[in-house]
């Protein structure tokens, strides 16, 4: 058997085994380092704490709308009555605020995703190798996309909260800047996968770069662009729920309040809303992607 045939037969397997070995060594190094520094502890009473937390999570606060105590008394240590609370009314007001926070989260994800897609499109056109953009512009565009993709949304959010202040604007900009990197990579890969024959045919009749893009490139990549947009938008729905932790508003703010006050029942309610919201958007986007395919 020739050396070329041997390389074809065993090169892929040996390469895969080598990468697997490197991965195993990395995992072992991570575990060894954390174990040596005693950073793998589960705490003093992990089982008891788990059962206590699970019991509180099993009673989400929204159930108080129907089953809550209409006359819940708060007393001091000496028995003095401090106040009386109607849990059904309190929880109804909380759910109204939860609905507003959910809409804020959806708005942040939607507008941030659109901003990221619009910013990424011209950069993706410059980055796509088969469109032969001037090399300095292509390098600059790729550098911007790599930087945007490397910096986490929360880091962008922390910086932007300091620049534009607390509120959804910081969240929209953070989502947009980070998503720009992801959109740019996906859009450029879609363009590079095109059949160049159609593009060369348009170029051969003397079309300008703009005419080439809008007549040969855009119609061919539009379905893939829409599919990529839906995918990143779906991810940003999840990501935007965290931005409230740094003051960008939305559901993250309610998560911060619930965890700070150890209100696990209310945290369970917020998490249920997040799961339902993400699941609904996932189902809708999947149907749209199937229609485009």
Please name the defining characteristics of this protein:
extended, mainly alpha, 2 strands, 293 residues
From the spread of the alpha carbons, the general shape counts as extended
Percent helix, as a range, is over 70%
- Tell me the structural class: mainly alpha
> Can you count the helices?
11
**Uncertain ranges:** none
Instruction: Note the run of SSEs as H and E.
Output: HHHEEHHHHHHHH
Strand order of the largest sheet: 1-2
N-C termini distance: 44 Å
CATH class of the domain at 89-292: Mainly Alpha
Q: How many distinct beta strands?
A: 2
What is the makeup of the main sheet?
2 strands, antiparallel
What's the pLDDT, averaged over the residues?
A: 83
From the alpha carbons, calculate the radius of gyration and give it in angstroms.
26 Å
Please provide a brief summary of the model.
This protein has 293 residues and is mainly α.
Tell me what the structure shows.
- The chain has 293 residues and is mostly helical.
- It has eleven helices and two strands.
- It has a domain of 204 residues: MetI-like fold (Orthogonal Bundle).
- Strands 1-2 form a two-stranded antiparallel ribbon.
- A hairpin with a 5-residue loop joins strand 1 and strand 2.
- Helix 9 runs parallel beside helix 10.
Secondary structure: elements and pairs:
Elements: H1 3-36, H2 46-57, H3 64-67, E1 72-75, E2 81-85, H4 87-127, H5 135-150, H6 153-164, H7 168-192, H8 196-204, H9 209-243, H10 251-260, H11 264-292
Antiparallel strand pairs: 1-2
Helix pairs in contact: 4-5, 4-7, 4-9, 4-10, 5-7, 6-7, 7-9, 8-9, 9-10, 9-11, 10-11
């Amino acid at each position: 058997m020739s050396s070329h045939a041997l390389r074809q037969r065993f090169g892929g397997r040996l390469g895969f085994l080598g990468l697997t070995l490197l991965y195993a060594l990395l995992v072992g190094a991570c575990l060894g380092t954390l174990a040596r520094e005693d950073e793998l502890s589960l705490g003093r009473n992990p089982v008891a704490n788990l059962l206590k937390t699970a019991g509180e999570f099993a009673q989400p606060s929204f159930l108080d709308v129907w089953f809550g105590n209409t006359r819940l008394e708060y007393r001091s240590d000496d028995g003095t009555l401090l106040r009386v609370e109607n849990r059904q009314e309190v929880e109804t007001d909380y759910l109204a605020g939860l609905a507003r926070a959910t809409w804020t989260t959806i708005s942040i994800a939607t507008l941030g995703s659109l901003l990221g897609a619009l910013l990424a499109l011209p950069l993706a056109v410059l980055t796509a190798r088969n469109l032969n953009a001037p090399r300095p512009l292509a390098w600059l565009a790729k550098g911007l996309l790599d930087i945007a993709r490397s910096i986490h949304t929360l880091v962008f959010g922390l910086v932007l909260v300091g620049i534009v202040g607390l509120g959804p604007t910081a969240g929209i900009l953070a989502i947009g800047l980070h998503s720009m990197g992801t959109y740019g990579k996906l859009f450029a890969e879609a363009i590079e996968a095109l059949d160049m024959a159609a593009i060369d045919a348009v170029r051969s009749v003397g079309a300008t770069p703009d005419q080439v893009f809008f007549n040969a490139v855009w119609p061919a990549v539009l379905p893939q662009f829409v599919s990529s947009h839906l995918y990143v938008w779906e991810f940003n729905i999840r990501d935007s729920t965290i931005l409230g932790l740094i003051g960008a508003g939305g559901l993250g703010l309610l998560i911060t309040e619930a965890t700070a006050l150890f209100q696990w029942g209310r945290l369970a309610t917020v998490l249920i809303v997040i799961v339902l919201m993400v699941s609904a958007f996932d189902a809708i986007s999947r149907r749209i992607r199937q229609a485009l395919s």
